[in-house]
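#help-structures
NK: newbie question, is this the right format to request a structure? protein is Manganese-dependent ADP-ribose/CDP-alcohol diphosphatase
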Amino acid sequence: MTTGSKNGIQPLFTFGIIADIQYADIDDGFNFSHTRKRYYRNSINLLRNAQASWNTENIKPQFILQLGDIIDGHNKKDNSSDQALNTVMKEFESSPVVHHVWGNHEFYNFNRDTLLRSVLNSTIDSDSGGGCPSNGEIYAYHFSPASRYRFVILDAYDVSMLGREESSVQYNQAVAFLKAHNENEDLNQPPDCIGLEQRFVKFNGGFSADQLDWLEGVLSLADDQMERVTIICHLPIHPGSTTPVCLAWNYDKLLANIQGHKSVVCFMAGHDHDGGYHSDYCGVHHLTLEGVIETPPGSDAFVRIRFTIILSKSVDTIADVAVVCRAATATAGAVSRVEREGEVCSACIAA
Ligand SMILES: [Zn+2]
């Protein structure tokens, strides 16, 4: 997309977004259900293209949002997790501040304690220099890039079988929760049903009461201060913006919470590599970014990774964001989920 002013309005700030890089120094492969090809080694080239684009924008991004799954789980069994992470992080060296989100592939490679001490912990760039106060274990924080604008990073694997010690409360909550909804021996296999119940798989996770309480406080304050809040998370939370198998376990709880706050205008996620978009009845824009990992080499897929969203001072700011994303997708010839209504997507198993 073009940069600079839109309809003569100077942007207040700009930022870049990239989702599901899933880099690994291995040959191409397929997703869990063998329906989609994955270009593990080439994903670093697409990140490079994104950086090149961001660096040549007339108005440079103020920050980058990395929406999780930065390296692939294959690195773990090859004992190359640290090396792969270093390779990707080198590509971010020319970036402005990068806000990292944690996805399931972060936890395939590292446990929670390791991540909290790693370069993927960007709470130092939060407004308070720290995150959600609950024992310091929940990776959630917020920052304000400009007056009356706030971004909140959420931890979708707070209650999870991934990354938590087997003795932890959260791990055992997750096991009990999953087994109550999924009778498969392999909990990465969705339950034998159709619809929203498919989300009860091990590669998803949920939000604890502590995190939801913390978010409630952040959003109430944002309401009072008449801020516009964008929430960032690895897992989507609106069924209209993703295939059901990629939804957060207790998406309905979080969705109800944010719909009760006038400050929330946008929710951005990754995980579903096909992407998606939905505007809910409260006017909240739910945007799921397409994944880098399934973008073929040499294809015109740059819009998946390099667009810069402009938040202007105009009243229609967030509406503009949605239009930009969908228009960019259409330009590349890739059809977004919202434009192929009724199609059943099975591409996201073990996203
Ligand atoms: Zn994921």
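mod (FA): yep, format's fine, and the tokens are attached above. Confidence is low (pLDDT under 50) at residues 1-6, 300-307, 312-351.
NK: thank you!
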